[in-house]
């Protein structure tokens, strides 16, 4: 399991292996940093390298690795 997989799994509420804008929105609320639906959509779009509108574990890991 990758170093980011545990965190990814916590965010992936429906356990479909992808993070949606809705799941990102809920994450931000839980962290006490609520964002608008538009901001959640934009955040997902930034990480979504394959254009499917969702964040995969690979996309999540690549983003966090590059942010270090």
UniProtKB/TrEMBL annotation:
Any one GO molecular-function label of the UniProt entry: calcium ion binding
UniProt cross-references to InterPro entries, sorted A to Z: EF-hand-dom_pair, EF_Hand_1_Ca_BS, EF_hand_dom
Stored Gene3D superfamilies: EF-hand
A Pfam family assignment: EF-hand_7
Domain of life: Bacteria
Domain EF-hand: 1-34, 35-68
Name used for this protein in its record: EF-hand domain-containing protein
């Amino acid at each position: 399991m990758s170093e980011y997989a545990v965190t990814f799994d916590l965010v992936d509420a429906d356990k479909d292996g992808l993070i949606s804008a809705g799941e990102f929105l809920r994450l931000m609320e839980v962290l006490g940093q609520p964002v608008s639906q538009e901001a959640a959509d934009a955040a997902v779009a930034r990480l979504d390298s394959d254009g499917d509108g969702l964040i995969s574990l690979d996309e999540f890991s690549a983003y966090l690795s590059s942010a270090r």
